[in-house]
Amino acid sequence: MAAQLVDAHGRVHNYLRIAVTDRCNLRCVYCMPEEGLSFEPDSRILSYEEITEIVQAAAGLGIKKLRITGGEPLVRKGLDRLISMLSAIPGIEDIALTTNGIYLAPFADRLKAAGLTRVNISLDSLRADRFAMITRGGDVSKVLAGLRASQRAGFHPIKLNMVLMKGINDDEVDDFLRMTLKESIQVRFIEYMPIGHADSSWRAAYLPLDYVLERCSRMGLDYRPCGEVYGNGPAQSYQFDGAAGTFGLIHPVSDHFCSSCNRLRLTADGSIKPCLYWSDEYNVRKHIGNPSAIAAIFLKALGAKPETHEMAKALAGQQQTQSPTIRRMSQIGG
């Protein structure tokens, strides 16, 4: 089937990120304010059947890859049922999960059996006290248990996502890099993004990812680009000589990857977002029961997708050409 989701800038879209909830059991400093957010009532959250119907229409337009996100997707009961429903849709080839890992260990085998392909685990510190500070109460031992359970279940690749923050966790880069020497995992360093806020605290904590490569040199370890790593999306991937794993750099601010963007987003309350950063959204839930209308909303959203975001302008405090989203990261799904 020829790709049908091609935007005005020639980018083919075959990837849909699906937020199944806006709720989360953590309050990470870059994702949610300390006091939390006003969560949507259950009645406004897409049911698994509604999500499946939307994905069926999207698959007919060329969507092949899915990523289940939140909030924290594992606070939603019966997630393996949704995975099973989605994996049965013709044309869907890959289903991944992004999770904070707290609840992952008891469900890893069940999710694998349901058809989940890959797992991304958010892990911004390996130190118990610091992890609790960044997440405002999380237990890093539970995340590490989720990592081990995912390895035993046979997920591959397994990615660890670390949001790099100056003065907060930048002194742990070496520890994360060393993990890749012996473990077959992908550590991905991600620049702090101003999603839902571009205030002075974000600018103060922002650190470009050149810092990671500087640390490699200081460690005296030889590394090389390792080409495309399966499922690594926008990350530039590297590997130390003789290492079991890899590390990647995702720098949406300092060196954005908009020219190769292939994704759309479905929010938990039923809107299509063409771009993570901008405020544009298109309600698709009201068209449930009408597959052609659902497809039309995807095409409408794609038609409005801009060529690029302007996060670098936010960093510099410059005027932007559009309105950034006021939703926080937890409300979009990243």
TrEMBL record:
Binds 2 [4Fe-4S] clusters. Binds 1 [4Fe-4S] cluster coordinated with 3 cysteines and an exchangeable S-adenosyl-L-methionine and 1 [4Fe-4S] cluster coordinated with 3 cysteines and the GTP-derived substrate. This is GTP 3',8-cyclase. Catalyzes the cyclization of GTP to (8S)-3',8-cyclo-7,8-dihydroguanosine 5'-triphosphate. Pathway: Cofactor biosynthesis; molybdopterin biosynthesis. Keywords: 4Fe-4S, GTP-binding, Iron, Iron-sulfur, Lyase, Metal-binding, Molybdenum cofactor biosynthesis, Nucleotide-binding, S-adenosyl-L-methionine. S-adenosyl-L-methionine binds at Y30, G71, S122, M193. [4Fe-4S] cluster 2 binds at C258, C261, C275. It is an enzyme of class 4 (lyase). Its EC number is 4.1.99.22. Residues 315-334 are annotated as: Disordered. [4Fe-4S] cluster 1 binds at C24, C28, C31. The keyword Ribosomal protein does not apply. Belongs to the radical SAM superfamily. MoaA family. HAMAP family: MoaA_B. Monomer and homodimer. One of its GO terms (molecular function) is GTP 3',8'-cyclase activity. Pfam families: Mob_synth_C (PF06463), Radical_SAM (PF04055). The lineage of its organism: Bacteria, Bacillati, Bacillota, Bacilli, Bacillales. Residues 8-222 form the Radical SAM core domain. Its cofactor is [4Fe-4S] cluster. It catalyses: GTP + AH2 + S-adenosyl-L-methionine = (8S)-3',8-cyclo-7,8-dihydroguanosine 5'-triphosphate + 5'-deoxyadenosine + L-methionine + A + H(+). GTP binds at R17, R67, T98, K159, R263, L264, R265. It comes from Paenibacillus plantiphilus.
